[in-house]
């Protein structure tokens, strides 16, 4: 007799294998199991190996009839109320909150769940929710039984950590899902970079006032624009260096003063181009390629190598005056600093992977050219690094801010009142470009040990609640700036970014999506949007995220589910900050076109025009007879007809070729009506032209003296639609 345990349909059962006979509930191995095989102690038992056939005694867990009755009752109620849900990914908070509302889960097959989770870990554009996620409890017997009972029912709520896990084209109208289709237009670094350049079509705001300038290096025009921007920034950085550098420091002069003169000239040309709108003028017209290389080498010696400029004290006043002029037209002058540092990012990766900081132009271009696949897919972006951020105890940080979109037409945005700060493990310094100093992603910093030089008020887990940051601002007398500058600026930046992507998203009712925006704060606490993440991580990696991530998931369900039933329901810490006026979308009528009109009465018959075969060949063929005209035209005078007949007969009798008659072409322009959709289904009459017959020029002097023929054809009573 062998005692083994097998897992059948997710339930662990005890099998007692006996030879020849068995008491109680049994399964005959040769008939019930396929393939008829059991492995025990490294030995495989098959039907053919044992005679007589094996019988399996199954010791199933006791089934409580009362529990079965309760499960059936709850399932019937849930099906009637359309409360069946499916979750892909580790979201224990969402699962528990839905069950508390009477929803029943239809669990995905284990193989499908594992495959989707594996794909989500390799997905570049979305954050990973599989790491450091609290272990979910095993489902109790009641929920397992109910999940089994609804395995063939329609799912009415999907929560996934991948946008392509469920195809929205296959969903019914009443099914809810937590991802919009084609939202990658603003949740990737490259997409956000391109979209915000079109902000002037949607709003009067300037993207340079909240989004550090960014370029896609795969496009040649943008690569050229970046090189110009880098050179111009090098000039302004040199002017800042002259103003901010302590002139009392004595060192050997290495760089000639002409370098400052060149920088002032470039900045002046830039101001003039903005004033006069001369978009055709380029920096290459000022300096040749060799001159730019020489200027940048001198700039590197000064800004990066600490070299001194000859007689730099003579240029301080002129540099200050130029910087004041530039400050009026360049909103990002305050974040540029003197090092001209740029951050290079793979355009469709998350969690800080592949991001590097560089400050030399040749190094940036060389770094991008390393991976030709990313160049081919247009995924490399370079963005201006904020060299002068707001620091907390001399440590850099960024802000993770959640927001929720429940509709794209009308655009409806919910802003979460709570956020948290993520610190780097090392004190801030521009002497090194190491990621431990400049990248605040928790996915990077959690693997690093905090520096002993960092302030003791920053916790080892590198995170702060927003309340802790507000207390820090209060200690510096800046508490009021949190609401008036930081929060207000973050709301505006989110709305601007969403407006530029509105036309690119496939809007669908009963769809929502939670996003995580990352911000940096400037010296005056002005927020700068860095990127927007789809499927932001909900991993309770620290005590801060364990508190806030749980709350934001529960409040998301309050907005999405509870408010559908009761418009006055509590939405937690979500605040409705923007709701656009609905735009009526015209109904699509298909491509079947209908032409309506009236039959043309009394068509005009043109007199026949004859010519020789040679003349016809010269004109590329015989003259085709034109269509009938709307009105009857007066016949030609008899004198002209007779002259024409005589001319034709003489040409046939004589072998010499007569001069070719001048025959004018008839241009008929029919009325045209063009459909125009402008905010609705309005028809706009584009143009209506009447048909005209141009002049037929007489070919002889006699005909010129006798008459001139002008035919005008029109029929205003025969419109064409």
From TrEMBL:
Matching entries from InterPro entries are given as: TTL/TTLL_fam, TTLL_monoglycylase
Subcellular localization: Cytoplasm, Cytoskeleton, Flagellum axoneme
Write out the GO biological process terms: cilium assembly; cilium movement
Q: Which Pfam family is an annotated match for this chain, by its short name?
A: TTL
- Residue ranges annotated as compositionally biased, kind Basic and acidic residues, are 132-141
Q: Gene3D superfamilies this protein is in?
A: ATP-grasp fold, B domain
Which UniProt keywords are listed? ATP-binding, Cell projection, Cilium, Cytoplasm, Cytoskeleton, Flagellum, Ligase, Nucleotide-binding
Main subcellular localization, coarse class? cytoplasm
**GO CC field:** axoneme; microtubule cytoskeleton
* Positions of the UniProt region annotated as Disordered: 109-141, 612-660
The protein's GO terms of the molecular function aspect are: ATP binding; protein-glycine ligase activity, initiating
Catalytic activity line of the entry: L-glutamyl-[protein] + glycine + ATP = glycyl-L-glutamyl-[protein] + ADP + phosphate + H(+)
User: What name goes with this protein?
Assistant: Tubulin tyrosine ligase like 3
- Write down the species: Poecilia latipinna
């Amino acid at each position: 007799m062998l005692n083994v345990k097998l897992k059948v349909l997710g339930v662990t059962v005890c099998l007692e294998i006996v030879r020849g006979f068995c008491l109680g509930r049994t399964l005959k191995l040769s008939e019930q199991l396929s393939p008829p095989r059991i492995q025990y102690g490294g030995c495989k038992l098959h039907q053919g190996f044992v005679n007589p056939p094996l019988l399996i005694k199954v010791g199933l867990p006791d089934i409580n009839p009362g529990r079965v009755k309760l499960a059936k009752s709850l399932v019937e109620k849930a099906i009637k109320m359309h409360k069946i849900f499916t979750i892909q990914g580790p979201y224990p908070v969402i699962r528990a909150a839905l069950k508390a509302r009477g929803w029943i889960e239809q669990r995905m097959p284990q193989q499908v769940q594992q495959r989707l989770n594996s794909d989500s870990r390799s997905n570049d554009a979305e954050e990973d929710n599989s790491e450091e996620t609290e272990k979910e409890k095993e489902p109790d017997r009641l929920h397992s039984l109910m999940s089994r009972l609804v395995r063939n029912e329609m799912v009415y709520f999907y929560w996934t950590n991948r946008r392509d896990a469920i195809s929205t084209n296959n969903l019914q109208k009443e099914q809810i899902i937590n991802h919009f289709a084609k939202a990658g237009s603003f949740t990737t670094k490259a997409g956000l970079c391109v979209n915000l350049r079109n902000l002037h079509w949607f709003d009067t705001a300037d993207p340079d006032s909240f989004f550090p300038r960014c370029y896609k290096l795969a496009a040649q025009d943008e690569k050229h624009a970046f090189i110009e921007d880098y050179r111009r920034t090098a000039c302004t950085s040199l002017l800042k260096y002259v103003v901010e550098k302590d002139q009392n420091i004595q060192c050997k002069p290495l760089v000639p003063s002409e370098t400052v003169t060149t920088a002032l000239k470039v900045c002046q040309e830039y101001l003039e181009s903005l004033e006069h709108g001369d978009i055709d003028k380029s920096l290459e017209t000022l300096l040749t390629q060799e001159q730019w290389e020489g200027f940048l080498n001198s700039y590197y010696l000064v800004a990066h190598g600490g070299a001194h400029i000859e007689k730099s004290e003579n240029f301080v006043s002129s540099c200050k005056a130029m910087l004041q002029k530039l400050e009026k037209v360049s909103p990002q002058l305050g974040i540029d600093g003197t090092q001209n540092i740029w951050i290079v990012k793979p355009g469709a990766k998350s969690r800080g992977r592949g991001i590097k900081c560089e400050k030399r132009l040749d190094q940036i271009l060389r770094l991008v050219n390393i991976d030709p696949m990313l160049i081919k897919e247009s995924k490399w972006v370079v963005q201006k690094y904020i060299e002068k951020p707001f620091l907390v105890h001399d440590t850099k940080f960024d802000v993770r801010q959640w927001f929720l979109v429940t509709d794209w037409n009308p655009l409806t945005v919910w802003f979460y009142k709570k956020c948290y700060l993520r610190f780097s493990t090392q004190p801030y310094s521009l002497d090194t470009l190491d990621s431990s100093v400049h990248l605040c992603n928790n996915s990077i910093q959690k693997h690093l040990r905090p520096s002993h030089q960092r302030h003791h008020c920053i916790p080892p887990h590198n995170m702060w609640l927003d309340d802790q940051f507000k207390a820090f601002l209060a200690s510096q007398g800046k508490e009021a700036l949190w609401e008036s500058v930081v929060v207000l600026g973050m709301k505006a930046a989110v709305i601007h970014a969403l407006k530029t992507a509105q036309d690119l998203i496939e809007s669908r009712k009963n769809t929502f999506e939670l996003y995580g925006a990352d911000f940096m704060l400037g010296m005056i606490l002005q927020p700068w949007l860095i990127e927007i993440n789809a499927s932001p991580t909900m991993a309770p990696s620290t005590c801060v995220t364990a508190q806030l991530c749980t709350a934001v998931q529960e409040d998301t369900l309050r907005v999405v589910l509870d408010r559908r039933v009761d418009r006055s329901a509590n939405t937690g810490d979500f605040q409705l900050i923007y709701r656009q006026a609905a735009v009526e979308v015209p109904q699509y009528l298909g491509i079947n076109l209908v032409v309506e009109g009236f039959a043309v009465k009394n068509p005009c018959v043109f007199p026949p025009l004859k010519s020789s075969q040679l003349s016809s060949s010269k004109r590329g063929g015989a003259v085709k007879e034109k269509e009938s005209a709307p009105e009857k035209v007066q016949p030609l005078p008899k004198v002209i007809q007779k002259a024409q007949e005589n001319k034709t007969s003489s040409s046939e009798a004589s072998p010499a070729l007569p001069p070719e008659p001048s025959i004018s072409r008839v241009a008929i322009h029919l009325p045209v009506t063009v459909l125009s959709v402008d905010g609705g289904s309005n028809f706009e009459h584009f143009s209506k032209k009447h048909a005209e017959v141009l002049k037929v020029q007489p070919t002889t002097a006699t005909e010129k003296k006798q008459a001139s023929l002008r035919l005008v054809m029109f029929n205003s009573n025969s419109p064409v639609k």
